[in-house]
Amino acid sequence: MPIRRLPPQLINQIAAGEVVDRPASVIKELLENSLDAGADRIELDIEQGGQRLMRIRDNGSGIPREELALALSRHATSKIASLDDLEQVRSLGFRGEALPSIASVSRLTITSCTAGEAAGWRLRGDGREQFTTPEPAAHPQGTTVEVRDLFFNVPARRKFLRTERTEYQHIEEVVRRLALSRFDVAVRMNHNGKAQFDLRRADSAEAQGQRVAAVCSEAFLNQSSLMEHEGAGLRLWGWLGAPTFSRAQADQQYFYVNGRMVRDKLVSHAVRLAYQDVLYHGRHPAFVLFLEMDPAGVDVNAHPAKAEVRFRDSRLVHDYLHRTLKEAIAGARAGADAGAGA
Ligand code: ADP
Ligand code: MG
């Protein structure tokens, strides 16, 4: 074959292979967009594990009519404009790839309304790079993205989808992670018309605890201690599961660095060491922890989909986590023993 340029739709579909491998990854991208738009209320409607429909509505800034088509175009973003911006980026997205990728492998509709506008505008895509011109649509301030028939035009991908239940569980996990990272955002989700989450904004410590119970479980909340520690330029806080709440799998471990959920070898290792003496071999602790640090000391955007993170001073972070958690676990046990003895 001669060398030739790939058509835009194919370019987007190739990119979609990296960003969108299942319904849950669509949800992750759309949720991040809603948060980047400053939304404090997000509603999700899911049908058939997301394969039939994923609709996400937010009350964020909205997208002006003349930018709607751009939002669905590749490498178009409102989040950075220069290398300088890239180095300081605080938003969850910045690559301008998610919407065009999703639009290239689904039937996507985006409806949006900005603060100044009386009504909204809607744009449809059907897997091709061409979009209709925006049509007027009733919509309060914010954005609704509707994704139907994911992978309808990519049979090879569709084959890799698992059962409705499995795909839904992946979606739920993405929503859990978000719900724990943003107590200030109300989140509602329906699956096949049935309410799954209805989380109000949680401003007080008590309300945050309630959210942790709703998202993880009552049992976790009851068998965990709220900890907070500051030192070495780092701050660590959150809910630390008691050794008695250990699990057969590492399936209730939420660790956030500057608000972004990460799964990181260094973090896992530090946590494992901290629990080492109090957990049976093969058991895993449960926790919801937040590490806050100077953004310059950490790169959380190493990979678009993976939850990788790079610490500038990884030794310092590792030792801080190990030491602080170990002390917190010991302190909680001492407290529990004293409580039991009283
Ligand atoms: P990125 O998030 O990397 O910028 P996306 O393809 O996810 O790329 O989105 C493209 C652009 O569309 C964003 O930069 C933003 O301006 C706009 N956008 C997407 N979703 C929303 C939303 N829910 N509310 C407001 N603007 C949005
Ligand atoms: Mg995005």
Description:
The structure is a single chain. The chain is α+β, with helices and mostly antiparallel strands and 342 residues long. The chain has two domains: 8-199, Heat Shock Protein 90 (2-Layer Sandwich); 217-341, Ribosomal Protein S5, domain 2 (2-Layer Sandwich). Helices cover 35% and strands 24% of the residues. The chain is built from eleven helices and 15 strands. The chain has helices at residues 8-19, 23-36, 68-71, 83-88, 98-104, 155-158, 164-181, 205-215, 218-222, 265-275, 314-341, and strands at 41-47, 53-58, 107-113, 120-125, 135-137, 142-148, 186-191, 194-199, 224-231, 234-241, 253-257, 260-261, 287-292, 298-299, 310-311. The protein has an eight-stranded mixed sheet with strand order 5-4-3-6-2-1-7-8, with helices on one face. 36% of the residues are buried. The mean pLDDT is 91. The structure holds adenosine-5'-diphosphate and magnesium ion. Magnesium ion (MG) binds next to helix 2. Keywords: DNA damage, DNA repair.
Task: Please give a quick description of this structure.
One of its GO terms (molecular function) is ATP-dependent DNA damage sensor activity. Helix content is 35%, strand content 24%.
List the helices and strands and how they pair.
Blueprint: H1 8-19, H2 23-36, E1 41-47, E2 53-58, H3 68-71, H4 83-88, H5 98-104, E3 107-113, E4 120-125, E5 135-137, E6 142-148, H6 155-158, H7 164-181, E7 186-191, E8 194-199, H8 205-215, H9 218-222, E9 224-231, E10 234-241, E11 253-257, E12 260-261, H10 265-275, E13 287-292, E14 298-299, E15 310-311, H11 314-341
Parallel strand pairs: 1-7, 11-13
Antiparallel strand pairs: 1-2, 2-6, 3-4, 3-6, 4-5, 7-8, 9-10, 10-13, 11-12, 14-15
Bound molecules: adenosine-5'-diphosphate and magnesium ion (MG).
